[in-house]
DNA sequence: ATTGTACCTGACTAAATAGTCGGGTATAAT
DNA sequence: ATTATACCCGACTATTTAGTCAGGTACAAT
């Protein structure tokens, strides 16, 4: 039985969202009271309590402006959600294997489980360095959403390990030599033949284009 | 005579920045006092006053957690800065001409004047819709940084108006027919010959790749 | 008909938080 | 030597802000 957001709750949630967007900090009870056009703090407190128990927001007790919108809240508003950000991998030279460090990143809500701060099984985000996948639309500094998997199809873009080194490449399985290999999507780089030290951890489901200014010519 | 930031001020500024980054709201005097390891509110108030008069932060009087870091502050921290966000233009179908609506966007600090909330002469940001410039690396949903200009060189990517309609195209000037025209960077679209109703307002200096998830194949 | 839930009211209190007062030190500039 | 500036101290007050109390209405479900 899903915790459902009521229209009134959603109204307050979007007031919260907008206030934070243009002030940089959350509103007070009084400010919310005015925007919602009710005459008492209690109404605000009740609603916040509901939003909190529904997992839409986090709230510091007895704390001025201590409200944070949680992933589930953004989801209810139709905003992007979060994934654990586990580190960096490389699309060029392989680098040290990744590990979760507590950061979060926006991710497509479809990959997000409805439970608060709980992800769908084994989905995570990596930052990609290097240019070995540019022809697949993955650039230096972009992030990829990786879904853990055990079975792969030829043509899948995968997160592969060579020992402790992690890398993003296209997995290829063909009926003629070299049969099994990893293919960089950049003519500058050579294919990597499968060997015992190589394993695949997951499939790249989506790319988050990094928000960076690039000069034009 | 530039208002210079002192080491102590910068220290507080980065405490502010980090706190906001991971809480979603600014700290109280007390919290700043602890992090800065001083024993009085007055020290914090003094420093905030300096940061404020230097144009690094904005601060609501008598307001709990009412601090906002201003563009100049981000600049002092080496973070990206802001440009006025004037609206949307189209890289496909031209749309209604743009106008400033008070929003701000991150922009490369080099284009930002040192005065608070004042941009270098005539620089602004537009959101681009459509796919007519994909081969120049400008995609649907990206933002472009436009520098107002009067003189253009052949090959410049420009913001052009056809009456009230704004569009982004590559400006071409050649010695053979059709001499002067606007060229979309997508074979799907046709070139636009110059006519009296067409004028050019500025040159695209940089593209902010929009932060969007795109599925991979 | 009663129970529960979502929402509301207005007056009140408690706690958190910003700001003040009246000083101080150390350092560089005039 | 004086002045100005950047920074600090500790005790205090004023204001803002969250939270409580003791209710109420409207509506759907049992």
From TrEMBL, chains A, B:
InterPro entries: LexA, LexA-like, LexA/Signal_pep-like_sf, LexA_DNA-bd_dom, LexA_repressor, Peptidase_S24_LexA, Peptidase_S24_S26A/B/C, WH-like_DNA-bd_sf
Superkingdom of this protein's organism: Bacteria
Protein name: Repressor LexA
Gene3D superfamilies: Umud Fragment, subunit A, Winged helix-like DNA-binding domain superfamily/Winged helix DNA-binding domain
Keywords: Autocatalytic cleavage, DNA damage, DNA repair, DNA replication, DNA-binding, Hydrolase, Repressor, SOS response, Transcription, Transcription regulation
PANTHER family per the UniProt record, alphabetical: LEXA REPRESSOR, LEXA REPRESSOR-RELATED
Domain Peptidase S24/S26A/S26B/S26C: residue ranges: 84-205
Family (UniProt): Belongs to the peptidase S24 family.
NCBIfam families: lexA (TIGR00498)
Domain LexA repressor DNA-binding: 3-66
A single BP term in Gene Ontology: SOS response
GO molecular function terms noted in the UniProt entry: DNA binding; serine-type endopeptidase activity
Source organism of this protein record: Candidatus Komeilibacteria bacterium RIFCSPLOWO2_02_FULL_48_11
């Amino acid at each position: 039985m899903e915790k459902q957001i009521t229209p009134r709750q959603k109204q307050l949630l979007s007031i919260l969202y907008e206030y934070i967007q243009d002030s940089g900090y959350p509103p007070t009870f009084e400010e919310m009271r005015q925007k919602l056009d009710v005459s008492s703090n209690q109404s605000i407190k009740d609603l916040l309590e509901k939003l909190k128990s529904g997992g839409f927001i986090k709230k510091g007790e007895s704390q001025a402006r201590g409200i944070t919108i949680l992933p589930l809240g953004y989801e209810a508003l139709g905003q992007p959600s979060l994934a654990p950000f586990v580190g960096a991998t490389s699309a060029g030279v392989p680098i040290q294997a990744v590990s979760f460090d507590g950061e979060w990143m926006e991710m497509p809500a479809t990959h997000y489980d409805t439970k608060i701060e709980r992800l769908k099984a084994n989905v995570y985000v990596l930052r990609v360095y290097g240019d070995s996948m540019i022809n697949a639309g993955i650039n230096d500094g972009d992030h990829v959403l990786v879904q853990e998997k055990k079975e792969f199809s030829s043509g899948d873009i995968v997160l592969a390990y060579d020992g402790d080194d992690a890398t993003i490449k296209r997995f290829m399985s063909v009926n003629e030599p070299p049969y099994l290999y990893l293919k960089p999507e950049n003519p500058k780089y050579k294919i990597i033949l499968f060997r015992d030290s190589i394993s695949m951890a997951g499939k790249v489901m989506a790319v988050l284009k990094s928000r960076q200014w690039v000069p034009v010519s």
